[in-house]
Amino acid sequence: MPELPEVETIANGLHKRISGERIESVWLGRKPEPLKSPAAEIARTLEGARVKEVRRVGKHIVFDLAGRNDGHSQWIVHLGMTGRMLVANPESEVPKHTHLVARLASGRELRFVDPRRFGRLEVREGSFSGPGSEPLTIDFEDFARLFHRRTAPIKALLLNQNLLHGVGNIYADESLFRAGIRPRRRAHSLTRNELKKLHASLRKVLKEAIAAGGSSISDYVDADGEEGFFQLRHRVYGREGEPCLVCKKKIKKIVVAGRGTHYCPECQR
Ligand SMILES: [Zn+2]
Fold first, then answer.
1. Which of 75, 80, 203, 268 is the most buried (most CB within 10 A)?
2. Active-site residue numbers?
3. Residue 82 pLDDT
């Protein structure tokens, strides 16, 4: 499942490749699940529109469109578990499980492929911001307020998309490790200093992952559809039983909010 850094990488890659392009026509598949808006509405919104910008909002890819009649609308793509956006030459084979093909004025095609069909395509007027705050830009006071008086484990709240959007399991574990905070700590028990460390480490982890992803953009969106997800070198995530990189104690795995959760019992308190 792509998390914030992967979605940011993909959105940036698409922006580089197709911003300024006009969508000439759209083909939609017959499977209903990927279509959050009616097929006819998606086709009507996309056809003839120019892609002004592609960017990430939460875990969504947002295409800002300028319509034929100067209207402004948005095409919003959620990749789900297995969704991919491919920029392809029309002569390349259309992969199985392709649900949308947008033919671009340059002759290339933008294809949405999703074998498991948890991804979603939607169009809307106006501007989409999604629920929750943006973890890369939220300031410290607003960040601290999210956890004020909350008794849930801090890890569960980091994953709550209504508070912060786009933070997933990997980056929640990694940022808690760097901040020295145990995932099960009740949010209201965190000191101001701990919250400061968490605010800083969350942004740092996400930014490092985005920077690491820059080099794999081409692998990701290229026509053959190879998955190019980079992996930030994880310090705790997926390292159960391995020695902590700081203190050499074994990394533990527990379940918090239904998710496998990794931490160092020595470095995190
Ligand atoms: Zn440790």
1. 75
2. 2-3, 59, 259
3. 86
